[in-house]
Amino acid sequence: MRYLIGGFDEGLGACSLETLVGVERDYELFDGVSRAADFPPDARFSMNADFPEDIRTEDFISNITSALVVSERTREVLGTSALKNNEFLPVTIINHKGRKEKGPFYILHQVDLQDCIDFEQTICTRNAIDPTLLSTIKRLVLDMRRINSEVPIFRIKYFPYAPMFREDLIEKIRSAGLTGIKFTEPSQFRY
Fold first, then answer.
1. Any long-range contacts for 166-171 (C-beta under 8 Å, 24+ apart)?
2. What percent of the chain has pLDDT over 70?
């Protein structure tokens, strides 16, 4: 099975979002902690005020927190039952006029980080403050034996900022024409 890194691919006129608001312990979204039971109903993002002309919402919506903010269409295409160790957390998007965008929208949240970096072949530096995180990546190599093949989207322990997508799910995304996302081979990824 092959996995690629998902990244945002903003189209012309597509909005980007600022920081998630209304969620205590939002760092848990990158620690692999389930939030389905206690996610607040007023969780929201505002469109980035630096780009007032960019108003279109895509199926995967760029944001500065690196969360996977997705449309209802994405949820329907991907299906909820097939996404083991993932949960859809409802969020509101506030547009440039201060109004709620027609949704629904969700954070597609990855639970249970995968400890799958092959550190013998990966070229990276650890964070000086928190050595359990990586600061730079010049070459990323995954140890495929350490990935739970039943999980179609996951985040990597030591680098939870870039979600990994299984190739069959990528085909589903491409076939449906979902917008706002691109995929990169781990070997080509730089950070």
1. 166/1, 166/2, 166/3, 167/1, 167/2, 167/3, 167/4, 168/1, 169/78, 170/4
2. 99
